[in-house]
Design a protein that fits this description.
Blueprint lengths: L31 E2 L1 E3 L2 E3 L6 E6 L4 E7 L3 H18 L4 H17 L1 H12 L3 H23 L2 H4 L6 E2 L2 E5 L5 H14 L3 E5 L6 H12 L7 E3 L4 H9 L5 E5 L2 H11 L5 E5 L5 E4 L5 H13 L11 E5 L3 H12 L20 H16 L3 E3 L15 E4 L6 H4 L6 E7 L2 H9 L3 E2 L1 E5 L3 H10 L4 E4 L14 E2 L2 E2 L12 E2 L1
Parallel strand pairs: 1-5, 7-8, 7-10, 8-9, 10-11, 12-13, 12-18, 13-16, 15-16, 18-19
Antiparallel strand pairs: 2-3, 4-5, 6-22, 11-21, 14-15, 17-20
Helix pairs in contact: 2-4, 3-4, 4-6, 10-11
The structure holds 1,4-dihydronicotinamide adenine dinucleotide (NAI) and magnesium ion.
Length: 488
Amino acid sequence: MRRNRQDGQSAPTAWAYSPAPEPRAIVKLQPRYGLFINGAFVEPHSGRYFTTLNPATEEVLAEVAYAEAEDVDRAVRAARHAYEHWSKLPGKERAKYLFRIARLLQERAREFAVLESLDNGKPIRETRDVDIPLTIAHFFYYAGWADKLEYAFQGRTPRPLGVAGQIIPWNFPLLMAAWKIAPALATGNTVVLKPAETTPLTALLLAEVLQQAELPPGVVNIITGDGQTGAWLVQHPDVDKIAFTGSTEVGKLIQKAVAGTRKRLTLELGGKAAHVIFEDAAIDQAVEGIVNGIYFNQGHVCCAGSRLLVQESIADLVIRKLKRRIQLLRIGDPLDKNTDVGAINSLPQLQKIERLVQVGMQEGAEIYQPDCPLPERGYWYRPTILTNVSMAHTVAREEIFGPVLSVLTFRTPDEAVQIANNIRYGLSAGVWTNKGSRYLEFAARVKAGVVWCNTYNKFDPTSPFGGYKESGFGREGGVHGLLPYVAF
Ligand code: NAI
Ligand code: MG
């Protein structure tokens, strides 16, 4: 790789990609965003604001309001008030709003994709082709259920719970907002949503779409802030349900906080998925699956295939092909349409990845990274493969939440299942084999909420998603995703 230009990019040659930037002019950033309460943007009680960055450049994008306990209370009261009306609307009327939101998101899809890439650092190819289309699909899907709830729960009459407090992480900001809001509204609940502190902007743009859709004021309130804001929402006495996606550590705090209250709870937490490659697998396809499993979204994926289990007989071959493959990944400007791997979402997350990889090497792992140029500003981490890893290693047990793959080997199908299950998490798993009986047996025995066979990271709103063990409980997506928002 030639690195002879000032900007650190390789010199253009006949074989290099030309820059293909997605124009960012479509996004009209405001210098400052208030809290979205009762259908309008309002000043925070304290007058405090904080900044959100573009992690690819460290440029400040905007200031967003910091919601204190008083603001949380204001949002919950707005949601409670709106609930009186919203919960009594016929399902077919609620459906119309959800359809309208989905249609408006379709019309503004490019704007959302660019803004998500700016605020999060993920490649435009992913926001354009994955995050935003899946967000839209989710709203359409739950719009479809809103007037058919009696078929979802046959013989029972579901009723909404009330006000749902929803706390989401920074790895799929808009998509997680959709996973939370769409089923809650379809079932007649109202919402107070708290986006993550590093990625609030697409949720605030969604608030604009909710206004455009003329969603009644207070049905969805969006309050920005940090973990303390989230804690106030969890503790608020007039919240009926908490839905949380984020770290297992915070999930445990939330579970303690709601213990002994009438609040209903769903938790979607961390993971350390086993991605199992049997010797009879289609190797080249499996290598693509491995790359997608761990380097998609910089590995900031709760269900990332972060623990590769390769059958011993093919381990050398798979690792060799994998190393060659990741040399071709393009890292850099998230807005460039040819970028495969974008920026790490924040400096603390980058430091966490660096620390865990350091620990891995101290414990004896061997590291492999491609020799690609990295931009000078922003938060970057090379796609990384750690070999010589066993289940005793920290990097095989802890969620790194970055582009770091830990490679282990196994000999028999039994051993693969044992290693896969020898972990406190149970969110997802992947298996590659030519034999249907083998993947069916693996899928039945592995303790994971989602098991992908001969593919990875496939998402669909009709398919439930959620964990076992310390990966949480409750399901999002599919008919199952309605259940956490209803009582009988
Ligand atoms: P986090 O769990 O602290 O943040 C997720 C959301 O929870 C954010 O909106 C945050 O403001 C909120 N929050 C934080 N503390 C809270 C509290 N006490 N009560 C209520 N809400 C609270 O995750 P963070 O700090 O961003 O990342 C730390 C690590 O967590 C990552 O390195 C990664 O390993 C893991 N993580 C896993 C995710 C997953 O989907 N599995 C998502 C995000 C982080
Ligand atoms: Mg940001």
